[in-house]
Write a structure and sequence with these properties.
The complex is a heterotrimer. Chain A has 16 helices and two strands. Chain A is an all-alpha fold. The longest helix of chain B is centred in the N-terminal third of the chain and has 31 residues. The chains are: A mainly alpha, B mainly alpha, C alpha/beta. Chains in contact: A-B, B-C.
C-alpha cells in the first residue's frame, strides 16, 4: 500500500518530500543499528552471565547468517561451506592472537585470511550452479576440518588450540565483554550489508540471481558480481568464526562440523531468504532451539537427546518450511520482500 | 613396486564401493533431477538396522539382507513422504530438503543408538592373500568386488533388458509422453528412489567396516568421495559413475599410501575442483556448462 | 448419438483460473476422421490434452465408447483405447526406435499381442525396421513422425488423437502420412481426431471438420462442405 503512495508522490519532479524520503531510507539502517546497540547495551547490563554469553553467541551467529542470507537469498548461490569458512576465521584468529596478543590485529588477520579463502572458493563457485555448487561447498565443509590433522604441529589436530585473551578492561565481567565484542561485530556487519544491499551492488546481485542473461545484457559482470558476493559473505563468516574463538577461548575442528553449515542454511531459510532481519531471527533460533532441546534432554534424563534432539527439530522445521512454501525458496524470499517493502 | 601393486588393489576395492554409491546418486539424478544429498545419511540408517539385526540374531547375513530391505523402504518413504512434494522450479529446493533429511536422520540415529562409534565386523577376513610375496587382495576385497559387480550387472540388465527398466527410463526422459503410453510415472519415480537407496545401503554395508566404525556421520566423507566420483563420470552416466568411483578409490589409496592418509580427503576435494572447473560435463560427456 | 465412439458435451477446460475451452461439443463416429481446425491459440492442442487427461476438465463431459471418462487418469487412457500423439511428436529421443515402439505395447497384459502389433508396424514402416537400433535423436523429422504414429498404433487404439502431424515436414511426407491415415481408417476402422494447421491436407482426408476459434466451436460440418465454404475459409482458416 505504502508502495503505491511512494510512487505517486515521487513520480513528478523530484520534490522535497521525495528527497527527504530517500535520505530517510538511507538513514534507516543506521537508526536500526543504533537502536539495536542500545538494546544490546541494556540487555548486557541486565542479563546474568550465562544469558550474556548466549547473547554474545547470537551476535556471533548473526554475523554469518547475515552474510549467508545475502549470498543465497539475494544472489542465489547456496553455500554449504560457511562452517568451514568460520573455522578458517577462528583458526586464523587464534594463531594471530596467540602470537601477537592484540585483539584488533587478530580480527584483521582473521578477516584477511577469510577474504582470501572466500575469493578462492568464490572464483570456483562463480562457474558452478545449483547442486554442483552445493556439492563443492559441502566438500569444503567436510574436508577443511581434516586439515587440522594434516598440519597438526600448527593446528594441534582434534584437540585444537586454546586462545589467550587479555582480561576485559576495567571491572567488566568476561561475558558482558564478549557480548559487546560479538555485537559490535554483528552490528557493523549488518550496517555494511544493509548499505551494500540497498545500493547498486544489491541491484546487481538480484539481477544476476533472477536472470543471468538479462543481467549480462544490462551490462552486469556476472562472474565478478558472484565472486564479490561470495567474498563479502565469506568475510562475515570469518568474523563470526573469530568471534566464536573469542567466546569459547579455544578453537577445535569439532566446533565446526558439517551440521553447523547445515544449521546456517536452516537459519536463513526459516528467517526468510535475503532478509537481514530474518538472519537475526535465524541466529536467535540457532541459540534458542538447542538450549530448549537441552532442557528437554535434562528433564527426561536422556543424554542421547542432547544435541540430537536439536538436529531432529532443525531438520523437521527445515523440511516443513520448504514443502509448505509454494515454489520453495523463491516464495520464502518473495513473501519476505513484500513484507520488507511494506515496512519501508 | 610391491607397495604399488598393493595400493592399486586396495584402491580398486575402495573404488568399487564409491562406484556403487555414485551409481545410487546417478540413479536418482536421472530419475528425478535431484542430487540426493541425504544419500549418505540414508545409507548409515540402513547400516544401523543391519547392526541391530546382526546383534540380535548373531548372523551377519540376516543383517545384510535387513540393510537392503531397510534401504528400499527408506527410499520409498523419502520419495513418497518428502521428495514428491518438493517444488522443482529451482534445483536448490531439492538440495535444501535433502539437507533437512540429513539433520533428521542423523539426529534420530543419535537418539536411538547414541553418538559413539560402534565397531562393525566383516563377514570375511580382511587379511590380504600373498602371491609371490606380494600382498594383493583380501577375501573381503573379493566380496566387495563380487557384490558391486552383481549390482552393476543386475542394474544394467534391469534397465536395458526388462519392460520395467524401459518404463523407468522413459518416465525419466519424457514423463508426459510416458503417461500417455500408460506408464505410471510416479510409481517409476518411487521405484527409482527405492533402488538407489538400496544400492546406497549396500555401499554403506561394504564401506563402514573398513572405516572408523558405525556413527551417524560415518558416511559424510564417503558421500563426498562418491559425489566426486559421480561428477568425474558425469551425473547422467552410470558407466561414468563406476569409472569415476574407481578413479577416486585409486587416488585415495595412492595418496594415503605415498603421502599421508590425512591428505587423502583434500586430494578428493582437489580432484572435484579440477573436474568441475576443467571438464564441466564430467569426463564422459561433451556438454559444456554445469548448469543444472 | 449413442453410437458415437467419442462424444464431447459442453467441455470447458484450461490451465489455472482462465478456461481455454468453452462449451465445446463434438463427436467422432467409429472409423471416422474428424479434423479440428483453427488459428494458432484457438485451443486445438488444449482440446486434445484435455481429452487425454493432461489438462483438467472444469465442466461438461467426455464419453468414450459408452463410458464417461471423468476421473480417468492419463495412464489409463491407453487401456481404454485412446492413443495421443502429442505436438512435436513425443518421440523419446534418448531411446532407440525399437524401445520407443515397444513402449507403446507395454500396457498390454498379453505381450504376444504387443509383439504382433510391433511386427505389423515394422511392416507398415519399412524405414523404421531398418533403423531399429538408432536413437530417437538420430531420426529425421519424417521418421520421427512415423515413429510416433507407429508407437501409437502398437498400443492398439480405437481412437487416435493426432496433434499437428505435418508440422515441419515436407509436403511430400505430409501427403504420405495423410494417405496412411486414410488407409488405416479403411483397413482397420481406426477413428482419428486430427488437429492440423495445414487445413488443405487435413480436409483432404477428413470426413468431418470442426472449426475452433478462441476456444469455442464455430462450425461443425462435413469436410467437403467446409472445403467449399469460401466465407468460412477466409474468416477462420486463412486460405
Amino acid at each position: 500500500m505504502t508502495d503505491m503512495k511512494t510512487k505517486a508522490s515521487a513520480s513528478p519532479v523530484p520534490t522535497k518530500v521525495a528527497q527527504e524520503r530517500r535520505s530517510m531510507r538511507r538513514l534507516a539502517p543506521i537508526a536500526a543499528v543504533l537502536a539495536g546497540g542500545v538494546v544490546i547495551l541494556i540487555l548486557s547490563y541486565t542479563l546474568e552471565p550465562f544469558r550474556n554469553y548466549q547473547l554474545a553467541t547470537v551476535g556471533a551467529y548473526f554475523c554469518v547468517t547475515a552474510g549467508l542470507t545475502v549470498l543465497t537469498g539475494l544472489n542465489g548461490q547456496l553455500s554449504l561451506g560457511h562452517g568451514a569458512l568460520m573455522a578458517t576465521g577462528a583458526y586464523s584468529f587464534a594463531l594471530a592472537q596467540n602470537k601477537w596478543l592484540s585483539l584488533p590485529l587478530s580480527f584483521v588477520v582473521a578477516i584477511a585470511v577469510t577474504t582470501l579463502a572466500g575469493a578462492v572458493i568464490g572464483l570456483a563457485a562463480a562457474r558452478l550452479r545449483g547442486p554442483y555448487l552445493a556439492g563443492l561447498t559441502l566438500a569444503v565443509a567436510i574436508v577443511v576440518p581434516s586439515v587440522t590433522s594434516t598440519f597438526d604441529e600448527t593446528f594441534n589436530s582434534d584437540q585444537g588450540l586454546s586462545v589467550v585473551l587479555d582480561p576485559p578492561p576495567g571491572t567488566i565481567p568476561m561475558e558482558r565483554w564478549q557480548a559487546w565484542l560479538a555485537w559490535t561485530g554483528a552490528l557493523l556487519t549488518v550496517l555494511l550489508l544493509a548499505f551494500l544491499v540497498r545500493g547498486a551492488f544489491g541491484r546487481r546481485l538480484r539481477a544476476v540471481r533472477d536472470d543471468e542473461t538479462a543481467a549480462k545484457l544490462a551490462g552486469v559482470n556476472i562472474a565478478r558480481t558472484q565472486v564479490l558476493a561470495f567474498v563479502v559473505s565469506a568475510v562475515c563468516a570469518g568474523l563470526s568464526g573469530a568471534l566464536f574463538a573469542v567466546l569459547a577461548q579455544s578453537v577445535s575442528p569439532g566446533a565446526f562440523p558439517l551440521t553447523l553449515s547445515l544449521f546456517l542454511v536452516m537459519a536463513i531459510v526459516i528467517g526468510g531468504l535475503g532478509s537481514l532481519f530474518g538472519a537475526l531471527l535465524g541466529a536467535i533460533l540457532l541459540v534458542a532451539l538447542p538450549t530448549f532441546a537441552q532442557s528437554v534432554a535434562e528433564q527426561t534424563g536422556s543424554h542421547r537427546l542432547e544435541g540430537n534432539l536439536a538436529l531432529v527439530v532443525f531438520g523437521v522445521v527445515l523440511i516443513v518450511v520448504m514443502l509448505a512454501a509454494p515454489g520453495g525458496l523463491a516464495s520464502i524470499r518473495f513473501t519476505f520482500i513484500r513484507r520488507f517493502r511494506r515496512e519501508r | 613396486m610391491n607397495q604399488f601393486v598393493y595400493l592399486t588393489f586396495d584402491g580398486l576395492s575402495r573404488g568399487a564401493v564409491y562406484a556403487a554409491f555414485a551409481l545410487a546418486l546417478v540413479l536418482i539424478w536421472r530419475a528425478a533431477r535431484i542430487v540426493n544429498f541425504a544419500q549418505g545419511a540414508m545409507a548409515v540408517a540402513a547400516v544401523y538396522v543391519a547392526y541391530s539385526v546382526t546383534s540380535a540374531t548373531g548372523s551377519y547375513w540376516l543383517g545384510f539382507v535387513a540393510a537392503l530391505v531397510a534401504g528400499l523402504a527408506l527410499g520409498v518413504i523419502v520419495e513418497r513422504v518428502v521428495m514428491r512434494f518438493v517444488d522443482h522450479s529451482s534445483p536448490l529446493n531439492g538440495v535444501v530438503v535433502a539437507l533437512g533429511l540429513v539433520l533428521v536422520i542423523q539426529g534420530v540415529l543419535g537418539i536411538v543408538y547414541g553418538s559413539e562409534f560402534h565397531p562393525v565386523e566383516t563377514p570375511f577376513s580382511r587379511d590380504a592373500f600373498e602371491i609371490g610375496g606380494i600382498a594383493l587382495l583380501s577375501r573381503y576385497d573379493l566380496f566387495v568386488f563380487a557384490a558391486v559387480g552383481a549390482v552393476v550387472a543386475s542394474l544394467t540388465l534391469l534397465f536395458t533388458r526388462t519392460p520395467i527398466g524401459l518404463r523407468m527410463r522413459a518416465a525419466a526422459f519424457a514423463p508426459d509422453v510416458s503417461r500417455l503410453l500408460g506408464v505410471s510415472v510416479g510409481g517409476m519415480l518411487t521405484l527409482g528412489w527405492a533402488l538407489a537407496s538400496a544400492v546406497g545401503s549396500l555401499a554403506g554395508m561394504l564401506v563402514v567396516p573398513t572405516e572408523l566404525g558405525l556413527h551417524p556421520t560415518a558416511m559424510d566423507v564417503v558421500f563426498i568421495s562418491a559425489f566426486t566420483a559421480a561428477v568425474v563420470g558425469g551425473l547422467d552416466s552410470p558407466i561414468g559413475a563406476v569409472t569415476g568411483g574407481l578413479i577416486v578409490g585409486l587416488l585415495l589409496s595412492y595418496v594415503s599410501g605415498y603421502v599421508e592418509p590425512t591428505v587423502a580427503p583434500m586430494a578428493v576435494l582437489l580432484l572435484l575442483v579440477v573436474v568441475l572447473l576443467g571438464k564441466p560435463g564430467g569426463l564422459f560427456s561433451s556438454s559444456k556448462a554445469r548448469v543444472a | 448419438m449413442s453410437s458415437a465412439l467419442l462424444q464431447v458435451e459442453g467441455l470447458t477446460a484450461g490451465y489455472g483460473a482462465a478456461p481455454v475451452l468453452h462449451d465445446v461439443n463434438l463427436s467422432v463416429q467409429p472409423g471416422e476422421i474428424v479434423a479440428v481446425l483453427g488459428a494458432n491459440g484457438a485451443g486445438k492442442t488444449t482440446l486434445l490434452r484435455t481429452l487425454s487427461g493432461l489438462v483438467r476438465t472444469t465442466g461438461g463431459r467426455v464419453v468414450f465408447n459408452g463410458e464417461d471418462l471423468k476421473g480417468t487418469k492419463v495412464e489409463q487412457m491407453v487401456r481404454r483405447g485412446i492413443a495421443h500423439v502429442p505436438e512435436g511428436r513425443g518421440v523419446v529421443t534418448e531411446l532407440t526406435v525399437d524401445e520407443n515402439l515397444r513402449l507403446g505395447g507395454l500396457w498390454r497384459r498379453d505381450q504376444a499381442d504387443a509383439k504382433r502389433a510391433l511386427d505389423e508396424v515394422y511392416e507398415l514402416f519399412p524405414a523404421l525396421a531398418q533403423r531399429r537400433a538408432s536413437a530417437g535423436h538420430q531420426l529425421s523429422g519424417g521418421e520421427r513422425q512415423m515413429l510416433a504414429l507407429g508407437r501409437a498404433l502398437v498400443s492398439g487404439p480405437k481412437l487416435l488423437l493426432l496433434d499437428e502431424p505435418s508440422l515441419g515436414l515436407a509436403p511430400k511426407i505430409t501427403a504420405q502420412i495423410m494417405a496412411l491415415l486414410r488407409d488405416l481408417q479403411k483397413k482397420k476402422g481406426l477413428a482419428v481426431l486430427l488437429v492440423e494447421q495445414n487445413v488443405r491436407s487435413a480436409l483432404s482426408i477428413a470426413d468431418e471438420g470442426v472449426v475452433l476459434a478462441l476456444g469455442r466451436v464455430v462450425t461443425r460440418n462435413k469436410a467437403a462442405a467446409l472445403r467449399d465454404d469460401a466465407d468460412l475459409r477466409h474468416a477462420y482458416l486463412g486460405f
